[in-house]
Specification:
Layout: E1 4-12, H1 16-28, E2 33-37, H2 45-52, E3 59-63, H3 73-79, H4 93-110, E4 117-118, H5 130-135, E5 140-143, E6 152-155, E7 158-159, H6 165-172, E8 180-185, H7 192-208, E9 212-213, H8 216-223, H9 227-233
Parallel strand pairs: 1-2, 1-8, 1-9, 2-3, 4-5, 5-6, 7-8
Helix pairs in contact: 8-9
Length: about 240
């Protein structure tokens, strides 16, 4: 039985130098990755040039929101409420549609390829996101939980938080039976040690665990022929 791995890197646009370093590691190790672009950064010419130079079969861009609205954790603690201000995709359907349209407009102006995948900032979203995503021609999204209707979701498995390959393997072994193992990053937040072990993580997953590196688009194609994978990502009815 084939097992797959997706590397998911968020917050693209904040740190171009680190992004170049991250992409070089992926390419050097003959791996693949999905990178979450924040729409408002598409005005940066250096970033756009880099993104348009990538092979989409190796590095797939997904939408990580337009503004990446932030959750005010301090206020949350003070007021002891769920949230004081709604984040970008925990608002209304109308607000979701506006953000996604702004992303699509910038994308059509600056990028060569249209994203089919969405990953909400902070992995926070509510159920009114489904229709705006479909309306704006997104086919799948990353999430810790499934959507209730009409939208495929790629399950998240873990975050890269370890500082050694042995620590990573210990944590990975708790999830090793997952056919889709999605490892989440924020390359701008990785320590030097964490950046250094990415090479070892790729080698371990590819050569020890025999996992196949794929992109979100490839996963959708695989699901058309593999019912087990389809059941993992198909919506709740």
């Amino acid at each position: 039985m084939k097992k797959y791995v997706i590397f998911k890197d968020d917050d693209i646009g904040k740190d171009i130098h680190g992004l170049k370093k991250w992409i070089n590691i992926i390419i050097k190790n003959d791996a693949k990755a999905a990178i979450g672009l924040i729409g408002k950064y598409m005005t940066n010419q250096e970033l756009v040039k880099l993104l348009n130079s990538l092979d989409p079969l190796r590095i797939e861009i997904f939408c990580h929101g337009y503004s990446h609205g932030r959750l005010p954790f301090l206020l949350k603690k003070i007021w002891k409420k769920n949230r004081i201000l709604p984040v970008e995709f925990d608002r209304s359907s109308k607000s979701h549609n506006l953000s996604l349209r702004k992303y699509r407009l910038a994308e059509s102006k600056f990028l060569k390829k249209k994203a089919i995948c969405f990953g909400p900032p902070g992995n926070i979203w509510n159920d009114t996101i489904t229709n705006p995503l479909l309306k704006n021609e997104f086919k799948v999204m990353f999430s810790w939980r499934k959507a209730k209707h009409s939208l495929f979701t790629i399950p998240l498995s873990d975050n890269l938080k370890q500082s050694s390959i042995n620590e990573f393997i210990t944590d990975y072994n708790k999830k090793k039976d997952c056919r889709i193992y999605t490892l989440q990053f924020h390359h701008a937040n990785l320590s030097g040690k964490q950046f250094d072990i990415i090479n070892e993580v790729i080698d371990f997953l590819k050569n020890k665990e025999n996992r196949i590196f794929i992109t979100p688009s490839e996963l959708l194609e695989i699901s058309k022929k593999d019912k087990d994978i389809l059941n993992l990502i198909s919506p709740l009815i």
